[in-house]
Amino acid sequence: MVGAKLREAALKSPRQLYKFLMRECGKLPKEAQGFYRHSIKQLSVFTMIFSTQSQKEEERKQSNEHKSKDTIVVVEQHSLSFNKRICNCASYRTMDFKTIIRDESGINAQQFFKAVSIWRRNPQTVNRRILASIEVLNIEVNCDISQVFQLVNTLNISTLGMDREGDSVDNVKLLDVLRIFDQTVATTAGRKVHVYAVKQLPRTPHIFSTGIEFFLSLSEESCVINVHKPFFSFKQPLGARMAFMLQQGTDGFTSISVYQPSNRITSDYFSVEWLKQKLFPRMLKWAVSGDSERTSTPLSSLNLVSAEKYADLYCKLKEKYGKKLIENWPESTDPMKFVYEDVAIAAYLLLLWEKERFETGTNNLQTFIDLGCGNGLLVHILFNEGHRGLGIDLRRRKIWDLYPPETPLQVCTVVPSSSTVYPEVDWIIGNHSDELTPWIPIIAARSSNNCRFFLLPCCPYELNGAKYQRYCASKSQYSEYIDYVKNICVHICGFTTHLDKLRIPSTKRICLIGWGRTREEMKKREDRIRQMLSAKTTLTRQKYESSDETIESEAVEEEWTCDFKPRDKVERVRNCTQLDRTLVANIVDIVSNQLLHEGRAITTEQAPKKLWNAGRCLELRKVAESIPREAMIHLRKECGGLQTLLKNHSHIFRVVEGRVEFRVPGAAAAAAAAAAAERINGKAKKKRNELSLPPRVKTKPCWFYKNHPDGCPVTETKCNYKH
């Protein structure tokens, strides 16, 4: 029908043919009209529709008939090409995806794919089941995305997991199994599908299966389809149990849709909740973050060791050392954090040292010394794995008693001097070594030319033991301190220094590896160290000879600094419980008087007709202004200061969000306190009830009964304290 109209118009007038084609173009979708109109204009020039050459009527009619036929053929070809493009664009829309969440984010396509890139490189940040990930495939295919999706979604990768959960998976094997170039039809639309495949390793391999996560990206449509394939079906998968799609619309809306074929139901409640509650908010956060404005590439993790070997060794060490230590942890710190952190550091060091032995061509295990070893777990693991070493700390820990007696741990105060060089040690470790952190590369440099170091900075300290003060407001203190320590390692001590990020439960995860020495004379290096120490500290002796032998002998004899202040051997309690009692009582009186002044009056159950001064609610900074300066100096030396002191007196004060008020005694308050105590000490209370023990005897005096001008608002039977 359309062909007949085209021919009829062409026979009447070439101009009518052009007008008719343009009218037909208006019936197409808006996104197609620009392309179609451009094709018609090109066609009009090509067929000379507007030819002004004089022709006879019969010749013109025959010519127009041929031109109309050519026009129809060309238009059909253009339409076919356009339809192919439309089909390729709409192919993912025709797949059975159901939207589970959609929100107006206001981000653009560039921000969307930035978030996808962060997620693809660091899946463990949003999925705590994942320990590490390795990219195994990154290709572009000129195929329909629906075809690629069907291949990936129906793929059986169990054959890849027969060899130790796919340790040998690479892009060649994956492409051989996927057969993406054999079973897809190339499209002429020019829209390429980007196919990424990432191998993901679990934290707990006995529960979760290693798997491959596929990302099918169509950049023209801001669309990414994700499919997770576990190696073993009898284990839980690391990713979502169904395929899902993330899409950024041109209208500013971001959405996640899950794949639900019409013939079966594949939705999983926990996977859907994870997509909605975890992945979607994190993607939006990454999209609007300022990472794109950075000039440097963010540091990725585990750059110097194999991620697969690390995951395998970490799980073995965790099973070998972690469980027993967590069950018997005698310290007041969190065992889940400190045990697994040291296990992870040990796994990293063991692989790093294996890499060093391979490069140097030796089988001799490295020796080490850990300065500021703390709980000593890292020393215990490294020693048990065959490396001779020593751990030094200025205080003995309770956990040391759980280690075998042969574990080399020593109580000693380390002051950088001639006695703190270790020429026979291969590696010096500074794991959260605090005041010794900037000294670790100097000690390694003066120990021997072959000595290397591993440094994990935490709290920032200067060379003299004082807190490090940052100089650049545009950087965080931690970032600037890393640069400061790296400058000492590279430009002062002459180490080839690598930065890497560990996989540990801590926000301070960047470590510095002194991997080798730059080739230069020892005198030049020693000159730089002495100049820095002269600028940063007070040297006891600055005169030295110029020969290398004299420098080395003097470095052994001299004390490097006289103003270094190591930490006290006995850890000082700084929670305001060791303050002078008179000082504490005076501060409590000052705060209570401030609250009573112009306080609110309430009625009580004991005397409904009598008003009781419940005090007012004040900001802590206003309360602090009324406390004498001498008292505030003492409080500032404590952790938390005034707020901690008031919280220690929770039977008097209630501190919430930087404001303080009286904790009014009464039935409601007593019930709330009892409920809180029951939540905290539920097991103890249950045991007490089972044994039918008598109620606790009130021994602590009621502060309100003795000090409040209106007394205690409740009777002694209802009060939690003694009247």
TrEMBL record:
<keyword id="KW-0862">Zinc</keyword>
<keyword id="KW-0479">Metal-binding</keyword>
<keyword id="KW-0863">Zinc-finger</keyword>
<dbReference type="InterPro" id="IPR011671">
    <property type="entry name" value="tRNA_uracil_MeTrfase"/>
</dbReference>
<dbReference type="GO" id="GO:0005737">
    <property type="term" value="C:cytoplasm"/>
</dbReference>
<dbReference type="InterPro" id="IPR000571">
    <property type="entry name" value="Znf_CCCH"/>
</dbReference>
<dbReference type="GO" id="GO:0008270">
    <property type="term" value="F:zinc ion binding"/>
</dbReference>
<feature type="domain" description="C3H1-type">
    <location>
        <begin position="696"/>
        <end position="723"/>
    </location>
</feature>
<keyword id="KW-0489">Methyltransferase</keyword>
<dbReference type="Pfam" id="PF07757">
    <property type="entry name" value="AdoMet_MTase"/>
</dbReference>
<comment type="function">
    <text>Adenosyl-L-methionine (AdoMet)-dependent tRNA (uracil-O(2)-)-methyltransferase.</text>
</comment>
<dbReference type="GO" id="GO:0141101">
    <property type="term" value="F:tRNA(Ser) (uridine(44)-2'-O-)-methyltransferase activity"/>
</dbReference>
<comment type="function">
    <text>Probable adenosyl-L-methionine (AdoMet)-dependent tRNA (uracil-O(2)-)-methyltransferase.</text>
</comment>
<keyword id="KW-0949">S-adenosyl-L-methionine</keyword>
<dbReference type="GO" id="GO:0030488">
    <property type="term" value="P:tRNA methylation"/>
</dbReference>
<keyword id="KW-0819">tRNA processing</keyword>
<dbReference type="InterPro" id="IPR029063">
    <property type="entry name" value="SAM-dependent_MTases_sf"/>
</dbReference>
<protein>
    <recommendedName>
        <fullName>tRNA (uracil-O(2)-)-methyltransferase</fullName>
        <ecNumber>2.1.1.211</ecNumber>
    </recommendedName>
</protein>
<keyword id="KW-0963">Cytoplasm</keyword>
<comment type="similarity">
    <text>Belongs to the TRM44 family.</text>
</comment>
<feature type="zinc finger region" description="C3H1-type">
    <location>
        <begin position="696"/>
        <end position="723"/>
    </location>
</feature>
<keyword id="KW-0808">Transferase</keyword>
